[in-house]
């Protein structure tokens, strides 16, 4: 596994679901946040930039619930670690799966 190459391939649109979940935490129904997040991806594509390059002001044109803390969404490691349900991608969850499989194999 080439970790550096993997990091080079990360793109902001991979965090579109995180953007939608951010709005859910602000009280916006997911059925709306899905479309708002998609509009943010399109806005970035139209401008030829990453979604994470959009300003808070840009995002506010899509929905008033965006605040300065939206900038915290653009963190790939946090995104991975937020998925902590069974079978999720968080480090703790993956380690638990590895431990379980090692036990099963022995």
How widely separated are the two ends?
A: 26 Å
How much beta, percentage-wise? under 5%
Shape: elongated
Order of SSEs = HHHHHH
Q: The biggest beta sheet, please?
A: none
Low-confidence stretches: none
Based on CA atoms alone, the radius of gyration comes out at: 17 Å
How many alpha or pi helices? 6
Short description:
The protein is mainly α. It has six helices and no strands.
Write a structural description:
The structure is a single chain. The chain has 106 residues and is mainly alpha-helical. Helix content is 58%, strand content 0%.
Features:
6 helices, 106 residues, elongated, mainly alpha, single chain, 58% helix
How are the SSEs placed, and which strands pair?
Elements: H1 3-8, H2 16-25, H3 30-47, H4 56-60, H5 76-82, H6 91-105
